[in-house]
Amino acid sequence: MHKSERLFQLVNLLKGRKVAVTAKQLAEKLDVSERTIYRDIQNLQTSGVPVEGEAGIGYLISDCDLPPMMFSVQELQALLIGSRMLSAWTDPDQAQHAQSAIAKIEAVLPSKMKQLNDSLPYYALGFNHDETCQAHNKALREAIESKNHLLMTYKDAKEDISERTIEPLGLVYWGGKWTVIAFCLLRGAYREFRLDRVVSLSVLDSHFEHGAEKNLAHYIELVKAAACHSENT
Questions:
Q1: Where is the Helix-turn-helix type domain (predicted)?
Q2: How far apart are CA 43 and CA 67, in angstroms?
Q3: Are residues 106 and 179 in the same domain?
């Protein structure tokens, strides 16, 4: 567990408690030594977190506003909105990480910011994001990270089915539909594939490498150039 994550958990364990928690109890919950807990308590106190108590007696955090991690209200709102979108529109693993991030942000929000968070005008609903699409999303994300080739069965807009071996480069969300940007070995060029038209995916053992003209950034530059040319003609 990284130190930053441990400090977040420590704050959550101490905040709003009426009874002090001993360093031994905290160490057992976080699976670290008591010495580590004492160092973490000192780090929190130095950072301005109002941790009360002492060694041998226990610790707690009084019911007061905590420092908002040096983020502005607008920045925290942006982080929360982005996390909500990830939670609703990606695969279950990413959704769990996003929900964990939301919980950590909310745990240290001052009361005024909590009220603003509750009244955010943005919602991300994922009820039309089916399990098959989520599974494809996860398989593609993992293949992009590991640079594995994928064997894909795909149904196009005319419902013609083809089999492609692709090098997945990135996932793009178009406000309702996910698209994988890939280098298609059959066509020898970039191609876009909608996830809701993917019939099946198989991760292959072979790997690929990015190149100067085969990566997501290069693809985006080509799209920008094409859009600019279209506007000027």
A1: 6-59
A2: 14
A3: no
In a domain, 53, yes or no: yes
Could you tell me the sign of the dihedral formed by the alpha carbons of 165, 166, 167, 171, in that order? negative
Q: Are residues 135 and 204 in the same domain?
A: yes
Instruction: Say whether 213 sits in a helix, a strand or coil.
Output: coil
Considering the chain, what is the average pLDDT of its residues?
84
Is-contact 76 68, C-beta < 8 A? yes
Q: Which of 27, 186, 153, 159 is nearest to 10 (CA)?
A: 27
Q: CATH number, domain at 14?
A: 1.10.10.10
Domain total of the chain: 3
Q: Write out the residue range of the structural domain in which residue 194 sits.
A: 131-231
User: pLDDT digits over 158-187, tens only?
Assistant: 999 999 999 999 998 887 788 999 999 999
Q: pLDDT tens digits, residue range 119-146?
A: 677 666 665 566 788 888 889 999 999 9
Tell me: pLDDT of 71 over 70.
no
20 located within any domain: yes
Task: Give pLDDT, residue 194.
Answer: 93
CB < 8 Å & 24+ apart, contacts of 163-171: 164/191, 164/193, 165/204, 166/191, 166/193, 167/208, 167/214, 168/140, 168/143, 168/144, 169/144, 169/210, 169/214, 169/215, 169/216, 169/219, 170/144, 170/216, 170/219, 171/137, 171/140, 171/141, 171/144
| Same domain assignment for residues 226 and 136 | yes
Mean pLDDT of 44-56: 83
* Residue 40: exposure state from Cβ atoms within 10 A (0-12, 13-18, ≥19): buried
Tokens at 103, concatenated: 């919980």
